[in-house]
Amino acid sequence: MDLITMTHGAGGSLTDDLIKKYVLKYLGGSDVEVPLEALDDAAVIRDIVLKSDSHAVKPIFFPGGDIGRLAIAGTVNDIAVMGAEPKALATGFILEEGLEISDLERILQSMMLTCKEAEVSVITGDTKVVEKGALGGCVINTSGIGFRCSALERNLEVVREYRSFTKRWLLDSNLRPGDKILISGSIGEHGVAIMASRYGYDLGGKVESDVAPLNKMIKSLLEVGGIVSMKDLTRGGLANALNEWSEKSGVNILVHEEDIPIRKDVKAACEMLGIDPLQVGNEGKIIIGVVPEMADEVLRELRRHRKGRDAQVIGEVTGKGRMVILDTLVGGRRILSRPVGDPIPRIC
């Protein structure tokens, strides 16, 4: 008998298999512009970008954030990386019997502040309560809509100055040989902060989650132009996101390990815990595929923002194929495989 395991929800190859073998077998089949089958960060219908996301992070409060901030930022970012402007959200709460009202109020206040930061509003929702012991506090589903914007149109005009480009959105399948790969900042903070908080690890320093809405920064990047793909680095981390791009675009990607920003305390924590920081989920970082002629300008714009001050060019698309290669610190090269699942379950 086949059973669902925690790894099926961790965002790696098993999650991908579950969706492709079972979910897509019964759902999908629409004729919308970007459908479920595309497995992009959101769907598109009539210039409206639609996203739904559920959040079951454990614990619900963690260094640098909480489940409320995570629910708002995660949905906003999934809409923004498609090239749309997030506008409104719907929120569903599943609360566990015994959750303290003060904790619920703390979560709601965090959601309110994050909405103000992202300039979006929650306009509808639902609330349910389940028996004690089922959830670990609460689960939040957040759905959102965004609209096509002038910044996306400007961005695509710049792309077309340098190559033939017919796509209307920033999709995982848009990369072509020569494109540069940028990352907006250091990786691993969110997953390490969750693990330290969950298990009470003393890591000898203060590692906080990077959870944040990135839509304003993304809009400014689109106004510079030249971006063909964009993705936030959540479950499965950088390794998973790059492999999704490689598979969907049908390209080989070369990434330089020495250029990937990782904080010393995060790297030390990952070494101590025996996990690969390239596979650890984030909630405030994106990767960006850019036509090579615009890479430097996009990088400069990224570094103007507090959330992009550690941005780097980390690699390039080298040709057709479906492989991600890591140029390692020791001088060799290895295949950067897609993780089976995030090594830290329930991070979002």
Briefly, what is this?
The chain has helices at 13-26, 67-80, 101-118, 150-162, 189-199, 215-224, 237-249, 264-273, 295-303; strands spanning 43-45, 48-55, 61-62, 65-66, 85-96, 121-130, 138-147, 180-183, 227-232, 251-256, 286-290, 312-320, 324-327, 333-335. The chain is of the alpha+beta class and 348 residues long.
Description of the molecule:
The chain has 348 residues and is an alpha+beta fold. It folds into 2 domains: 143 residues, PurM-like, N-terminal domain (60s Ribosomal Protein L30, Chain: A, 2-Layer Sandwich), CATH 3.30.1330.10; 185 residues, Phosphoribosyl-aminoimidazole Synthetase, Chain A, domain 2 (Alpha-Beta Complex), CATH 3.90.650.10. Helix content is 32%, strand content 24%. It has 9 helices and 14 strands. Strands 9-11-8-12-10-13-14 form a 7-stranded mixed beta sheet. It has a 5-stranded mixed beta sheet with strand order 1-2-7-5-6, with helices on one face. Helix 6 packs antiparallel against helix 9. The longest helix has 18 residues. The radius of gyration is 19 Å and the shape is globular. The protein starts with 12 loop residues before the first helix and ends in a 13-residue tail after the last strand. The mean pLDDT is 94.
